[in-house]
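Entry type: protein chain
Record version: 2
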Amino acid sequence: MATFKGWPEDFQRFFIGLELDNSKKYFEANRRAYEDSVKGPMVALLESLEPDFGPGKVFRANRDIRFSKDKSPYKTNIAADVGMGAKGGYLSLDARGFTVATGRYMLSPEEIAKFRKKVAADASGRQLAAIVSRLEKTGYDIGGEELKRVPPPWPQDHARAELLRRKSLYVWKNYGLQPWLGSSSARKYIVKMWSDAQPLNDWFKKNL
């Protein structure tokens, strides 16, 4: 098992080059840089996180272009998920920075219906609102698909209208390009973010 030591500066050069020339020719000519400076450190990071958050998976470099007007063959970032569910979350690195997220990115229709009932209920709804408020005050962003209006049967001026409009709910932070990305210290920022956001995942586990 490789030790996670951060990403060398080559990772940014690789992604900038890929944005300028998103082609198989460029990717194959720079595959060593991708394997050594982009994917290799991500794999080592996931291995270091597994004991605390569960197994992780690096997403494929190739884009699914079957139904897309954009036929660029490669993603201009590297992403992975770890644990996904009760613990862990999502990671993404590109030429402009590093993003860490966790929560529920996709809810089934049945889960959305249950989520809204729990949001509307006084005890569970207030608890979720407090968790979200605390995360925002800590400096994290709240994301998730949302409707323009509160769905029936709840009134538009419901105390938790914003949460009732949600079809998914997650917390995330883009750290930009930081010196610590080039060292093993990157791991502690991930752990802190996921630990701060754990109450959100706990709420989902209990209520969905």
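Comment: The domain at 10-207 is CATH 3.30.1460.10 (Yope Regulator; Chain: A,).
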